[in-house]
Every structure is written in C-alpha cells, then in structure tokens.
C-alpha cells in the first residue's frame, strides 16, 4: 500500500471513530470498572442460585468494608505517585494497641479509638516524611515498616490474642445493623468513600494530589509543596487505617496478632483494579470502592461456585495483571 493510501485509510470515518473510542476509553476508566463489576455481578447471579440473595449481598458488602476503607486512604497515596505496602501490618498494630488500651482504660474503647486514629496518622505520616525528605522510594520505606509493625504487634501481644472486650453500644455502632438490615461496617465504608471523594475532588489538597502525581516538576513550578502533599496523603491513609482498626476491635470484641497479615495485597489490588494509575496523577475513590467490590465478588464467587480456595489468589493476581496491562495501554494511547 502506498503512503498516500495509508494516509487516506487513516483519515477515513472508521479510523476517526476508532480514535474517538480509544480517547473515550482512556478518559472513562471509572465507567469501565463499573461496567466490569456489573458484568461480573450478572454472571455470578446467573451461575449460582445463592449469590443474588439479600443475605449473601449484605455479607459480601460487610466483608469488603475493611478493604474498602483502607483502599480509600491508599488511593491518595497512589494518585500522589507513591505506594504503601504497610497498611495491613499497621492495621494489626493499631488494632492490638486499641484492644490493649481499652482493657487498660477499663473498657473505655472510645478513648482508645481516638488514640489509634491519631497514632495511625502519625505513623503513616512518618512513612511520608522518610520517603520525601530522605528520598527513599516509598516501596522500600513501607516494606521496611511492614516488618517493623508486624514485629511490634508480636512484641506487644507476646503472640497472644486479646478477646472478651465488652461494650455493646460501641459494638452496635461499628458492627450492628442500621434499621436491623444494613451492616454498620457498610455505613462506615460509605462514609469513608464520601469523605475521600470530597477531599479529593472539592478541596485544594485534592487538586494538589492529582497535580503532584501527574507531573511533580510542573506542580513544583506552580508553587505546590509536593513533599507536603505526599506526606498528607500518607496521613489520610493512616487515619483510615486507624478507623478500620477500632471497627475490627469492636466487631470481633478483640484482636488476633495475625490481624491484617497480607491485607495490603488486597488493598493494592482494589486501588489498581479501580482505575488508579500505577504512576500517579489519576484515580477516584468511587473506582477504588468498585475495585474492592470486584475483589469481594471474586472471593465470594469462588466459594459459591465450589471452586477450590487455592485458585482465589490466582484469580486475584490475574485481575491485577490485567488492570496493570490496561493502565499501561491506556497511557500509551493517550
């Protein structure tokens, strides 16, 4: 084919339509994730009699609440161009501290809850300071912190669980049912989603997070303190970890030293599947929550379909790889 023919082919209406579709796909990652979740929902509903039932759907939402709340915080870190591998270990440490403080304060779990939220913000903020001020990649920083938090949890607990915490009012607030139907954990997840969406889309801080992750040098050129933005992104994530920790303590009336182990992988999966870019600068809280729902449906579906549980990690890994491939492809098209 001659050069002239190639040029004519590239300028045909079909080619123009193709470019428009690619552009639309590149700018509607959130919509694509929602459509994928709907497709999975329909497939599971048709393939099993128990998926599309009130009991199962409410249990599904309750099960993803922990991942959902944690992932809302991690979304800020990812959009700013960083990563956090320590959220699961930090969750275990804060939950252990919360339970231990509640016992020491004679059942005052409300005071313990405030302490762990503040402590989560501080500890996660330290990750941000080390990453930005010492110029250590966040992957290395948080990988090291993962080991530190896990070890600190075992030291604090001496390897033993804490149980038997009794505070019926607090438990009803974090693990009861609204109107006797909707699990409280789901309400907390929705509240976290609303808070995260407002912070990300309707505040200067949210704008700065996108700008910092999208082009750090350009953000600096217009006067944005990118180091402070990244530190605050870690702080937001730490607050979400603190909130999740006291929800777990109230929910299970205690905590196990293994709480949170490996949870960071599910959180990262939810964020990536939800359309947040690996290299920063794009993403949404809604997409992240839908990503958490997809992770939950994979786990729930494998059980209902009678698939061996050993295949669940394989499914998670496959979905993550597909999400990464799509992210890279979309960036190249842009």
UniProtKB/TrEMBL annotation:
<dbReference type="InterPro" id="IPR001851">
    <property type="entry name" value="ABC_transp_permease"/>
</dbReference>
<dbReference type="GO" id="GO:0022857">
    <property type="term" value="F:transmembrane transporter activity"/>
</dbReference>
<feature type="transmembrane region" description="Helical">
    <location>
        <begin position="231"/>
        <end position="253"/>
    </location>
</feature>
<feature type="transmembrane region" description="Helical">
    <location>
        <begin position="110"/>
        <end position="130"/>
    </location>
</feature>
<keyword id="KW-0997">Cell inner membrane</keyword>
<keyword id="KW-0812">Transmembrane</keyword>
<keyword id="KW-1003">Cell membrane</keyword>
<feature type="transmembrane region" description="Helical">
    <location>
        <begin position="60"/>
        <end position="79"/>
    </location>
</feature>
<dbReference type="Pfam" id="PF02653">
    <property type="entry name" value="BPD_transp_2"/>
</dbReference>
<feature type="transmembrane region" description="Helical">
    <location>
        <begin position="31"/>
        <end position="48"/>
    </location>
</feature>
<feature type="transmembrane region" description="Helical">
    <location>
        <begin position="85"/>
        <end position="103"/>
    </location>
</feature>
<feature type="transmembrane region" description="Helical">
    <location>
        <begin position="265"/>
        <end position="298"/>
    </location>
</feature>
<keyword id="KW-0472">Membrane</keyword>
<feature type="transmembrane region" description="Helical">
    <location>
        <begin position="136"/>
        <end position="157"/>
    </location>
</feature>
<protein>
    <submittedName>
        <fullName>ABC transporter permease</fullName>
    </submittedName>
</protein>
<dbReference type="GO" id="GO:0005886">
    <property type="term" value="C:plasma membrane"/>
</dbReference>
<keyword id="KW-1133">Transmembrane helix</keyword>
<keyword id="KW-0813">Transport</keyword>
<feature type="transmembrane region" description="Helical">
    <location>
        <begin position="178"/>
        <end position="201"/>
    </location>
</feature>
<feature type="transmembrane region" description="Helical">
    <location>
        <begin position="310"/>
        <end position="330"/>
    </location>
</feature>
């Amino acid at each position: 084919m001659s050069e002239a023919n190639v040029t004519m082919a590239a300028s045909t209406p079909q080619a123009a339509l193709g470019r428009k579709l690619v552009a639309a796909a590149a700018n509607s990652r959130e919509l694509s994730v929602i459509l994928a979740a709907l497709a999975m929902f329909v497939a599971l509903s048709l393939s099993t009699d128990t998926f599309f039932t009130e009991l199962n759907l409410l249990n599904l939402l309750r099960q993803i609440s922990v991942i959902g709340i944690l992932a809302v915080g991690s979304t800020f870190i990812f959009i700013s161009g960083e990563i956090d591998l320590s959220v699961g270990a930090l969750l275990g440490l804060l939950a252990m501290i919360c339970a231990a403080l509640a016992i020491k304060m004679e059942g005052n779990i409300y005071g313990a809850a405030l302490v762990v939220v503040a402590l989560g913000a501080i500890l996660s903020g330290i990750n941000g300071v080390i990453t930005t001020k010492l110029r250590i990649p966040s992957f290395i920083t948080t990988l090291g912190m993962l080991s530190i938090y896990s070890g600190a949890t075992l030291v604090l607990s001496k390897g033993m669980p804490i149980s038997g915490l009794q505070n019926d009012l607090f438990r009803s607030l974090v693990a009861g049912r609204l109107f006797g139907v909707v699990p409280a954990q789901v309400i907390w997840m929705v509240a976290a989603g609303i808070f995260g969406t407002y912070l990300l889309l309707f505040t200067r801080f949210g704008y700065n997070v996108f700008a910092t992750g999208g082009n750090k040098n350009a953000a600096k050129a217009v006067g944005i303190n990118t180091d402070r933005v990244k530190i605050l992104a870690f702080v937001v994530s730490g607050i979400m970890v603190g909130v999740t920790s006291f929800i777990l303590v109230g929910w299970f009336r205690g905590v196990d030293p293994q709480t949170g182990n490996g949870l960071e992988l599910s959180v990262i999966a939810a964020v990536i599947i939800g359309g947040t870019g690996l290299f920063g600068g794009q993403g949404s809280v809604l997409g992240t929550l839908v990503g958490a729902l997809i992770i939950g449906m994979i786990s729930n579906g494998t059980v209902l379909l009678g698939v061996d549980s050993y295949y669940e990690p394989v499914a998670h890994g496959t979905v993550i790889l597909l999400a990464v491939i799509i992210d890279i492809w979309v960036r190249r098209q842009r």
